[in-house]
Amino acid sequence: MDDKTKKKIEIMQRAGLILGQVMDEIVDYVKEGVTELDIDKFAERRILELGGEPGFKKVDGYRHTICASTNDVVVHGIPKGKKLVNGDIFGFDCGVYLEGYHTDMAESVIVGGQSDSSRKKFLEVGKKSLFSAISEAKPGNRVGNISKAMQQGIESNGYSIVKSLVGHGVGKELHEEPEIPGYLEGKIENTPEIRVGMTLAIEVIYNLGAANVVFEGIDDWTIVSEDGSLSGLFERTIYVSENGPRLITKLKGDPINL
Amino acid sequence: MAHQGSVEIDGIIKEVLPNTLFRVELEGGQLILCHLSGKMRIHFIKILPGDRVKIEMTPYDNEKGRIIYRY
Hints:
The complex is a heterodimer of chains A (258) and B (71).
Chain A: H1 3-29, H2 36-49, E1 53-54, E2 66-70, E3 73-75, E4 89-98, E5 101-110, H3 117-134, H4 143-155, E6 160-161, E7 165-169, E8 176-180, E9 199-207, E10 213-215, E11 223-225, E12 231-241, E13 244-247
Antiparallel strand pairs in A: 1-4, 2-4, 3-11, 4-5, 6-9, 7-8, 7-9, 9-12, 10-11, 12-13
Helix pairs in contact in A: 1-2, 3-4
Chain B: E1 3-4, E2 7-17, E3 21-26, E4 31-36, H1 38-42, E5 52-57, E6 64-70
Parallel strand pairs in B: 4-6
Antiparallel strand pairs in B: 2-3, 2-5, 3-4, 5-6
């Protein structure tokens, strides 16, 4: 790894610490009666207090700190004033920008923590698939290995991978090459190589029902599942070291060997 | 923040413009402006009107594309 890459990773790790901490605090903050907007304002305040900048505000046309994706909202939900209800699947996506670099992270939780076992399983499967996909991000592998692991984890449990939305490289820009789909199309050998020093935002975006997603139609951002089924979202920013993937953004409970 | 994945679509070269730009007609009839991918430049692959090509498009701009393969 050259000095420029080491510097990039060092800055992103500091940004990742801020982001991970804020995300952990959001998990505790989420409860029935709280609105998506409350959470958005909370996240922004905490990021600024910890010395970072809300990365999503740098996205052209986006004016919030988080994306709030509740229940059938898949991604890019603009935080609304509607109160969360126990049992809701609340997915939140957030980014911290620091000294020229972005980090990106997402998590889904059940509001109130208690719910029927099918919702708990839905989220457990997603999170597990994310980490099994992340563990494929080692030098010598290809993006296709990551995609295949994610697809297997999700589809083997009967859920659908959303095909039109992808993970991505991350660094000076929030969205960089390569695209990291949650499913494998074509041969692994035809997908980009994974090299030491790469910084990637690997995310699993999946639905309980069918894979199709559509724009909700109320704003230019919110994407919902076409059949109205629940959607889950988990994302971590990692860097590829000589020995394999390492988490830049970490939540309490994430695997420690990464 | 999730990224909308780019799509691959077929088209036909309608016009060759200066600076290796091309006007391409897509399967649905739309005319878009395309440039040549780096790999095709390096291998000196010549593109002429009437050629069938594969285009990569980003969902964020549906008037531009990148020619990635000539059939």
